[in-house]
Amino acid sequence: MNKGVLYKCLLLTLAILLILTAISGCTEEQPEAPVPEPTPAPTEPEPTEKPPETPTPSEEDISLYMPMKVDYIWQYEGEGNEYASYTLRVEFEEGNRYQLTRDNGGTVIADIYEVRKDSIVHVYQAGESYDHTNLLKQPNNLEDIVLKLPIQVGNKWVSEENSYEIIDTKATITVPYGTFNDCVVVKRTYKDGSEDYLHYKEGVGLLQSEFRTNDFKVFSRLKNFSNK
Predict the structure, then answer these.
(1) DSSP notation for 50-76
(2) DSSP H or E run through 3
(3) If residue 169 lies in a helix (H) or strand (E), which one and from where to where?
(4) What would the mean pLDDT of 119-126 be, rounded to a whole number?
(5) What is the CA 149 to chain-centroid distance, rounded?
(6) Are 220 and 105 a contacting pair, CB within 8 Å?
(7) How far apart are CA 218 and CA 164, in angstroms?
(8) What's 218's domain CATH number?
(9) Domain encompassing residue 216
C-alpha cells in the first residue's frame, strides 16, 4: 500500500473515532440535581402553664351555695310585705340533713333540707314550731329540689309542680350585707304563674329573694350572716 492511501485511511479512522466520541457524549445521562429536603413547619411552643380545667358536674360542691352548720344565722331585711324580714338559723344537723328555723316575727317555721350529691332538696316543713324540737327523724313531707347541678345557665328542672331554671351565674348584686359578684340566679315559676328570683353566692348562701306576681313585688335582702 502506498503512503497516500495509508494516510487517507488514518484520517478516515480518526474522523470515525471523533464522531463516535461525540455521540457517546450526547447520550450520556447527566446526573440529576439534588432535591432539597422540605423545611419542617415551625411547632407551637409548649405553654409554660396549663389553663385551669372546668370542673365537671360531679366535681362541683353544691353545698357551697347553701352552707349549713349548726348556729349559722342569716338575717334578712324585707320590702313589700310585713313578713319579708326574717331570721334563718340552723338548729340541728345529722348526716346530710339540716333543720332550720325561719322566724318572721309572726310565726316560726321549721324546714329540713338534704344536701345530696347533685342537689339541695327541701324535704320537710312544719309551721308553728315555737318549741324548737329536733324534727330530723320525721318522715319527709316534701321533695322540692331548690338547687341542682350543673350550675350553668339553661339548667332546668321541675319539682313539686314548680319550674326552676338557672338564668345567670355571673350576676352582681348589692344587698345590705355587701356587694357580690359571680352570683347564681335561679328563677322559680309557680303553677299560678307567680315567680321567685333567688340569688345565691358561694360560701354565703341566699343573698336575695324577689317574689313577683303581676305588679306586686316582695324582696328579702341579706343584711347579716354569722357562721361562727
Answers:
(1) PPPPPPPGGG--GGGGS---TT-EEEE
(2) helix 3-27
(3) strand 162-175
(4) 98
(5) 10
(6) no
(7) 19
(8) 2.40.360
(9) 58-226
CA atoms within 13 A on the CB side of 100: 21
Q: Does 168 fall in a domain?
A: yes
Grid look-up 319527709 returns 140
Residue scoring higher pLDDT (43 or 131)? 131
| Interatomic CA distance for residues 81 and 79, integer angstroms | 6
What is the per-residue DSSP string for 6-59?
A: HHHHHHHHHHHHHHHHHHHHHHSPPPPPPPPPPPPPPPPPPPSSPPPPPPPGGG
Residue 55 exposed, middle or buried by CB count within 10 Å (0-12, 13-18, 19+): exposed
Please give the radius of gyration of the chain, using alpha carbons only, rounded to the nearest integer: 43
pLDDT above 70: percentage of residues in the chain: 74
Burial of 87: CB neighbours in 10 Å, binned 0-12, 13-18, 19+: middle
pLDDT band at 14 (very low <50, low <70, confident <90, very high): low
Each residue of 184-207: pLDDT tens digit?
Answer: 999 999 999 999 999 999 999 999
Residue 153 lies in a domain: yes
Domain contains 24 = no
Q: How many domains does the chain have?
A: 1
In a domain, 48, yes or no: no
